[in-house]
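Deliverable D5.2: sample structural annotation.
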Amino acid sequence: GDIYSERFDNQTYNHINQHGCESRIGISYVEVPEPDTAWLDCKINLTPGNIHGMQVGIDGTNKAGNFGVAVNLSYSHYNLFNGGERLNIKLRGAYEFVGGSSDEVLTHNYYEAGAGVSLSFPQAHIPVLGQLLKQRFTTSSEYGIGFDLQKRPEYTREFFSLNWKQKLDNENRTLNQTVSIIDINYVMMPWMSDSFKQYLDNDSNSLTRFSYEDVFTAGIGYSLIYSNSGGGNNRKNLYTLRFLAESSGNLLDAIFSMADAKKEDGQYNILGNPFAQYLKGDIDFAQTFRFNPKNSLAWHAAVGMAYPYDNSTIMPFEKRYYAGGPNSVRGWSTRRLGPGSYYKAGDEDNPATHVGDIRFALSAEYRFKWIKWLEFAAFTDAGNIWTIRDYDNQEGGKFSWNTFYREIAIGCGVGIRLDLGFLIIRFDGGKRVYDPANPEGQRWKFFETFKNNSAVYLAIGYPF
């Protein structure tokens, strides 16, 4: 009985298409042959597709100079309960060749194995709001559980995750929103060798010990991605906005408080360990101007902040920011920049100290496509991370309005990109121009040699 709407027509197509179990969708309208009427009959023709899918992948990995190999296996069922429900099972195994010094504390090879199961439904599982959201968005609900094991000669590390997400996409896919209603993660260290325990006990760096402790987080989150490139548009001015907000521990803190639970050393414990309580937010904006088919200018800006409070004095290691690397300030290797003006001889390669709670990044990149599959680039990056409090072994890392602008690192460089159509292989070389780790007056390094002041990267895709 409703009037024809092209918007509803597109919504119907998108709702069916998200199932993934149809190979073809056809929606047509036929006028009803009755006098003095303007009625239409809607016909929807669906061609069944293959409801089973399997993928196998072998990847080469390179983490901070350590090479390895990973095998991924996934199985998908696109119509599990005959309503477009999608089941996905993933298995992963990896082996990494880790180098290091001769003390054999952190030098051995290690392997990793993991499994994950997710089940998604093509509708929002939110009481009252579910039907309203379906009229405005393409909705889906996803439930997932995962387990990952890292085994090294010096320790065993286990990761457990449990989540429930609601996803909302608009008609032309330009706006994607995800609401994490349940997001539980537990990192466990069930075993350490005697030599590794001694290594941690003898290490004066408390941050190194903290990064190998059990961590429990339970919170909620919201993410938004808006881009004007959706719907197949080929615009000269492309931009993408990303926003992320998450919190952890607030509900647990309220429950423990109402139950009048006792604190140990000023903290509530769950599973024998203090749970993490924090707020975190990120804003990321990237824009590309296409002057012509061969020349373009891209720029990127990002800020983020994480704040631990009440049951936490420091953010979980996995949730803290890091800087340097192929998608950050190029010129520094991954996790080798900051925080602030922090520097300690012999600690350059310790990832536990090069982390922070505040992030700033600003980049610009000129791209010239010489031929269809070969592109050259010149770039400048600026940014750093800072801590929100004074922590041991991170001297000079705390954010201060009076000094932060003098602690923004600058790097520049050139790159080559191979455009294979389905992916872009990127080779970038960056050099340090301004290094805040040096004493003031000695931070400009543009005319210094490349040795110890540059980095080369091999990556997939554009940096932003």
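Annotation notes: The radius of gyration is 26 Å. Residues 100-106 have pLDDT under 50 and may be disordered.
The annotation will be released with the project's public dataset once the embargo ends.
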